[in-house]
Design brief:
CATH class: Alpha Beta
Helix content: 40-55%
CATH topology: Rossmann fold
Oligomer: single chain
Number of domains: 1
Number of strands: 7
Number of helices: 11
CATH architecture: 3-Layer(aba) Sandwich
CATH superfamily: HUPs
Strand content: 5-15%
């Protein structure tokens, strides 16, 4: 297992190399106040410099106040420019125009959640085009393995910076970045992960707790263990089966994702989408 220091160094080196090889120098990131976008922003500032990184904070009607304040605090800690661009008005306009099309299928479901993620993607790409910046994706390996992400939404970008890090590793690297001073707000590290796409949403509503999920995924992906071996180690058979099936069902998304910074030896994406 690589140390946090080694992973941190590798991410910075590959990130700098990616921008250099593509003739780009500036990046824009959607800042949610969550741990993933906070880590990506911190890494981008280290690799590119604070003057070359900007953030877009896009609260929805479901965003909590602390999510916005955490994102603003992160931007201040990093010394980057961050604009707050609420999406509720845009979202309501979409829903109004789509209402006749939806017909009787108007009960909110994942459709409305995906719509919010895709509105954010449109705003990020518009800023990217206008500034000549690259959008940095903020999805992690745990989410990617389970398909916990929206195509053409939060899965867009020029590069997946932490797509080869499990969620538990994301926290580990974030704590490493904070080793000398608080860069990533302590509230961001402490709060329960949520996409905040419906009231009271938590990641654990859709996927197993990351501590358990990551252990099973690490066994399946990094160690190439068969499901039966994981069950023999004490993991619940139904849970292992569910994770294996879910991982297989969402594998198609990998072919539509940005390039990924490779950290370990078993990235989820096809070889031609890996960058190291």
């Amino acid at each position: 297992m690589m140390t946090a220091e080694t992973i941190h160094k590798k991410l910075l080196g590959s990130l700098s190399k990616f921008f250099s090889e593509n003739g780009k120098s500036t990046a824009v990131i959607g800042l949610s106040g969550g741990i993933d976008s906070s880590l990506v922003a911190a890494l981008a500032v280290e690799a590119l410099g604070s003057d070359n990184v900007s953030g877009l904070i896009m609260p929805s009607q479901h965003s909590t106040v602390h999510s916005v304040t955490d994102a603003v605090q992160l931007a201040e800690n990093l010394g980057i420019t961050a604009h707050v661009t609420p999406i509720e008005t845009i979202y309501n306009a979409f829903i109004k125009e789509l209402s006749p099309v939806f017909g009787h299928h108007k009960t909110p479901d994942v459709t409305e959640e995906n719509l919010q993620a895709r509105i954010c993607a449109v705003l990020l790409m518009a800023v990217s085009n206008k500034q000549g910046s690259l959008v940095l994706n903020t999805s992690n390996k745990s989410e990617l393995a389970m398909g916990y992400g929206t195509l053409y939404g939060d899965l867009i970008g020029a590069l997946m910076v932490i797509g080869d890090l499990y969620k538990t590793q994301v926290y580990e690297i974030a704590r490493y970045i904070n080793r000398h001073r608080e860069i990533i707000p302590k509230n961001t590290l402490a709060k329960e992960p949520s996409a905040e796409l419906h009231p009271g949403q938590k990641d654990s509503d859709s996927i197993p707790p990351y501590g358990i999920l990551d252990s099973i995924l690490h066994g399946l992906i990094e160690e190439r263990q068969p499901p039966a071996a994981l069950v023999a180690q004490g993991f619940e058979e139904a849970l292992v089966t569910h994770i294996v099936q879910q991982k297989a069902q969402v594998a198609f998304k990998g072919y539509q994702l940005p390039q990924l910074l490779v950290v370990g030896g078993h990235p989820l994406l096809p070889e031609d989408k890996c960058f190291s």
